[in-house]
Specification:
439 residues, OB fold (Dihydrolipoamide Acetyltransferase, E2P), five-stranded mixed barrel, five-stranded antiparallel β-sheet, 32% strand, disordered N terminus
Length: 439
Amino acid sequence: MTVQPDQVTPRDGEELDWTQLLDAYDYARPQRGELRDGLIMQIEENGVLVSIGTKREGIIPSSDLRAMGEELTTTLEVGATIQVYVQEPENRDGDLILSLTMVQVAKDWETAASLHQDGGIVRCKVIGFNKGGLLVQFNRIRGFVPASQVAQLHGRTAAEERQQALQRMVNQEIPLKVIEVDRERNRLVLSERSATQEWRKAQKQRLLTELQPGDILDGRVNQLTNFGAFIDLGGADGLAHISELSWQRVNHPREVLSPGQEVKVVVVEIDRERERIGLSLRQLQENPWETIDQRYSLGQLITGPVTNVTPFGAFVQIEEAVEGLIHASELDVDPQTQPRDVLQPGQMVTAKVISLDRQRQRMGLSLRRVSDDDRDNQDADGVEAEHSADNSNGVEATSIMSDADDTVEPSGESAIDTAEPTDASQAESPTEQAANPTE
């Protein structure tokens, strides 16, 4: 029970107990950790005297003032009202020790508690690391991020690799979410993983709302799977299906991409209900099928390696990014024979172009329609081209040089040279061609 001043009266024949009277006026004894409003009474070299309504004035040590910085301490003046923190209600010398620095620290703890309650996100600088995780600076409080709460680490990360990853994060500013506040134990625990998930969720909603098909974006390859590549668009992942990575045949995304690679993509589909974003790399590349009929024609013979053999036929590479299909019915064998019994991947074959559809990106080939005459002509063309090349450096050149008036320089260009394909783009996927076999 607090004694009020008007209750302190001397009995008859007794003297007034001044200690009791002073205690009565000291009605609100300061407690460690309290924030009090105070009045600056005196500014001295060793500190600042502040009255906080108690029987004695408190002192803010000069060391505490230096920690606050010269910019703030120069604004202090006698008669000004300031907020102070009760650091020691009474030290060995009986002094009341106050602090300005701890006022800010106390407010930081209040901010941390508020963020913990509201689930807010704050950005902090990484100031160090240890075996357990990261040390971060939360205003004037040192916080800790356990390794399990670091976004780029997972349970299978090796110890040495984990330490290297943590070291690389020093001096970086990262988003964090407060997951534990214990001021008594001076314990502040934060999570980058939770903050990143929250931030990415918000960013994904924004992208799903703002993006439109045809938008071209910069992204970073985040993950490779058998069916495609997940690409980070700056807060949300979009999927580039394996068929949209390149015009050429891709057996696995790792053939054309690697994790962390910076790429440019175009948005091809947005499913806002399922929260999915479809992307394409190949639509930003030149399509070799757009000019295919300028390089090939019906009846033309082509030679290339078999890239894939299926029950309905075999695919032959025409260019780096163009394939043709030899349907099973166009093999030069018994109709009951399976394509895999005749052809194997990597085998070189000569086939005739029997259909060409630029819009549907289809090229039909045939082995059975390649006649002996065709083969002979192709062989003859090859021999003639070789012979012509030899003559251009030998007998024919000598003959031409003998005619001083009519000198003609041979071009050296052969039919094989002019028929050689030059464009390199994507081969059509076997699945698509299987759905539309060449007739």
